[in-house]
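Protocol step 6 of 9: fold each sequence in the batch and record its structure tokens directly after the sequence line. For illustration, a two-sequence batch is reproduced in full.

Sequence one:
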Amino acid sequence: MSTVTIEQGPQPENSTSQQSARNRLINAASDLFCRYGINATGIEAVIEAAGTAKATLYKTFGSKEGLIEAVLEAEGKAWRDWFIHEINSYPGDAKAKLIGIFDILEIWFAKDRFFGCPFINAVGEFDKKDTRYKEIALSHKTIVMHKIAQLAQETGDPDANDLAHQIGLLIDGAIVAALITGNPQMARVARNAAAKVV
């Protein structure tokens, strides 16, 4: 006996399907923004990659700007969770961990999906007087620098704050150099510099 499927009209999205659509949009936008750039990626490309409707994107994020902010928040959290976990797992004392940061970065630089820092990229793409993405980037950087500052203090360095900022600058420089050259070993150059200041 055959069964007949009765097609129903559109059903209200429940919280699970809304969350699923939100995640698909963020994942698709993250990949496209990081690979091709935010300004070069239109909304149509994002919704096609996510398999959602344009109305879903605007209902969920309000605008492309809202989507960009959500992508940066998600990318930042995922990266920080990974990075801080790797630092905590790195063997040795605080000095070893500070230098080991660059071993951790080299792993990231060697990944196929390494497209540089999404925050540096985003700030670089927009009006430098527009503080919207700078504030998100600063929030991300503050959390990362807090971890580095903790390690710097644990070394007993009398200029721990200065040491933390030196390491931070080496991190940013290594990320940009690795992106431009396509060479993950830029992390080793930064590691050598870090070893001299720690």
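Sequence two, same batch, same settings:
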Amino acid sequence: MATAPDRQSVSSFRAEREAGWLEFQALLDRVERRSPRALTEEELLLLPTLYRSTLSSLSVARAISLDAGLIAYLEALALRGYLFIYGVKEGIGKRITRFFLADWPRAVQDLWRETWASFALLAIGAVAGYRLVAANPAWFDAIIPGELAGGRGPNASAEALRAMLYDGGGGQFLTGFAVMLFTHNAQISLLAFALGFALAVPTALLILMNGCLLGAFFQVYVAKGLGFELGGWLSIHGTTELFAITIAGAAGIRIGTRVAFPGGQPRLAAAARAGRVSATAMLGVVVMLFVAGLLEGIGRQRITSDAVRYGIGATMLLLWLGYFYLLPRMTHGPR
């Protein structure tokens, strides 16, 4: 038969554990009043720990026969925690809606520093590629694979280059080149993310190389007096596609920098947290590349007005910027 605990042991028990109970209760109160989005990522990760601690307290309280009121409180708190952590989850429709309205834009917003770094690498690569080809046209073949160049090289005539901008050499060429370009950029994006764990060095090199490719192409067209026309030809899908590659680079950089500089956290834990944010952003990158592929394959060659091409590109860029950086604040307020 269990003996009644003395007052000193009861007071010690409460003093040691009550702060955790109250913190757990406060978090559950916020979730129940609003939604899981009311909690930060750190608080969401803390919930299972506090739940297990509450169960431990309940077990000890029952074993040493603490007062019935405290046991009832812990039982109710544990039940609330169980229902939140292990209860029925939202359906696939709600999960998809939450991803597009909250998870994805918030993940990209969280990566804003890395996004600027990735964009800077892309711009540096573009300038380097442009200057290398301007100094020596032989660099074009070293930077751009022949199958991706598709005949667009320094030796091509201005007439041939212009024809590719406005008629693509026929529908078959358009379809094949669209698929090849989409595949190339999808590979770059996935590799930039996947290789981020290696301290982000391969990610940085991939983004630089992709920028070099862009700069080399531009130099060839600028040299033939077609730089403005190439900008419009690329902008329809390019603002979406380059934004997607930039975010993929940012995701890889986040993982790499957290592995290299975990701060006050264990290295593995810091990398895991960075991986969750980056993986969410990368799911969205796949969507962006799909949209870019549609724009590439359907709209670009069928729209031959430079003004309309630039207008579509600018509109898409503004839509993405608003979606990533304004929507989270409008729907849920600043995090």
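Proceed to step 7 once all outputs are recorded. Observation for sequence two: The chain is about 80% helix and 0% strand.
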